[in-house]
Write a structure and sequence with these properties.
This protein has 476 residues and is α+β, with helices and mostly antiparallel strands. Helices cover 58% and strands 11% of the residues. The protein contains 11 helices and 6 strands.
Length: 476
């Protein structure tokens, strides 16, 4: 029915055959799953913060993100791919426009007296050998009667949008990776501080134990145990320093900086940034407009639909208008005389009667690619909902783990105090004190790790929500 309607419209401006793209409307859940409310940082159905890294209240992190959009090499490569896609669109659009050019030829020729020249009686005195001058202006224009070019331009525009969304996805991954590396660095620095505090306490205990030994209260075993604990704690420092340097370099790499370029800037320890008391997560139905991977899948589906239209248009005749105008002369003196003019003008009609199954095969291929793109879009949407749901649960449970770790630290501090009192009164041994000190150290280290996990899980949640790529957004 569509094709017959198009044929009736040819007298006007042609038509566009093939399927028209319609934006998918997947049935989204009404809300995300209910998460525990007994946490200090709750989620709610508000508008997602597109500059979420500022919610940590860390000026250094904000400054690093500001530099990321300008310096990251992956973003620069993605920008080049966008430029290439736009150039492809320009090429596709040019096929629907008139083409014009000029040429000038000179040839020195000789006709054979026994060839085709013998079939025609030459003019009196006409030589068989001569010079021929032919300057011409040529023009052609293929009429886009069935929308083949328009569909090709539509597909190229959709692919350009897909590249833009791909860059947005890279921007989202880059800012999330930067934030996670930065938070991990602050975690390592906090672990370093805990370790040093415990090392100082262990060394003080060594001194006290030696004093007690000199007084005849402690034994050589007590001294050895205290010294062993201090040495064991000190052995962890090089590993932490190595990890800190690696995280500094990871941030530098994202900013296209050489190794150790940020050592002075990031090497100064800073507190682990807190998470905000409330985190807006939007609604599931809004996710398709935020996540770059879903937006990219939609653009790719649009391009595949337009490609199907191109394949349909190939079944219809194509009409080209062409011609040339110029002069033709045997002498340079008369090359621009009006009598030397020569021209050609007329249409060319190409009708695809038989192509050996190529057109049918191409159409079947394009339809299959369109269906595959639709499936990929559905998968992207479903993956997005799952990512958010998993991230919501992970964020809530990470806060529970942190609270439990904090409670463990409080209990271990009481245990250490009791062990020290009992050791002073002779009820407990030095090993009991060392064991309690080691347990406290592990608990304090666990709090630092748990706090970092809360922060990193929040970054994962924001990444799943698709917020945070606009800092490096590119307009179509």
């Amino acid at each position: 029915m569509r094709r017959f309607a198009c044929v009736g419209a040819l007298a006007l401006a042609g038509c566009t055959v093939g399927p028209n793209f319609e934006r998918p409307k997947p049935a989204a859940p009404a809300a995300y799953g209910t998460e525990p409310q007994d946490v200090t940082s709750r989620t709610y159905a508000g508008e997602v913060d597109t500059a979420w890294w500022k919610s940590f209240g860390d000026p250094e992190l904000t400054a690093l993100v500001d530099r990321l959009g300008k310096q990251n090499l992956d973003l620069q490569s993605a920008a080049e791919r966008i430029g290439q896609a736009r150039a492809q669109r320009t090429i596709a659009a040019s096929l629907g426009l008139p083409h014009a050019g000029g040429r000038a030829t000179y040839t020195h020729e000789r006709e054979s007296a026994n060839g085709t020249a013998s079939l025609v009686e030459p003019a009196p005195g006409a030589p068989l050998e001569f010079d021929l001058y032919q300057p011409q202006v040529q023009a052609s224009w293929e009429l886009d009667l069935f929308g083949k070019v328009r569909r090709a331009v539509e597909a190229a525009s959709a692919r350009t949008q897909a590249e833009i969304e791909a860059r947005n996805g890279i921007a989202l991954s880059a800012v999330a990776e930067l934030a996670q590396d930065y938070l991990m660095l602050r975690q390592l620095q906090a672990q370093d501080a805990v370790l040093r505090d415990n090392l100082a306490a262990a060394r003080r205990r060594v001194g006290l134990t030696r004093d007690r030994f000199a007084s005849g209260v402690a034994t050589t075993l007590d001294v050895a145990q205290a010294e062993a604990q201090a040495t064991e704690i000190a052995q962890s420092l090089p590993s932490l320093r190595n990890q800190e340097a690696a995280m500094e370099n990871a941030v530098a790499f994202l900013l296209a900086e050489p190794p150790r370029a940020l050592a002075d800037e990031l090497g100064r320890p800073a507190a682990q940034p807190p998470v905000p008391p409330a985190v807006p997560v939007g609604l599931p139905g809004e996710l398709m407009r935020r996540r770059p991977d879903i937006r990219q899948a939609e653009a790719e589906l649009h391009a595949a639909t337009a490609d199907t239209g191109v394949a349909v248009a190939n079944f219809f005749p194509s009409i080209s208008l062409g011609g040339n105008f110029g002069t033709e002369s045997l002498h340079t003196g008369t090359i621009f005389d009006w009598a030397s003019r020569a021209f050609m003008l007329g249409p060319t009609v190409n009708i695809p009667f038989f192509q050996g199954g190529q057109l049918k095969g191409t159409l079947a291929l394009r339809k299959s690619q369109q269906r595959a793109a639709a499936i990929a879009y559905q998968q992207a949407v479903l993956r997005g909902w799952h990512d958010v749901d998993n991230a919501l649960t992970g964020y809530a449970e990470a806060q529970h783990e942190r609270d439990n770790a904090a409670a463990t630290v409080a209990a271990e501090r009481r245990a250490l105090a009791a062990a020290e009192d009992q050791y002073a009164s002779g009820v407990a041994t030095q090993l009991d004190v060392i064991s309690a000190q080691g347990a406290l150290f592990q608990a304090e280290d666990g709090v630092v790790r748990a706090q970092a996990q809360v922060e990193i899980r929040l970054v994962t949640l924001y990444k799943a929500l698709g917020g945070g790529w606009s800092y490096a957004a590119t307009t179509p």
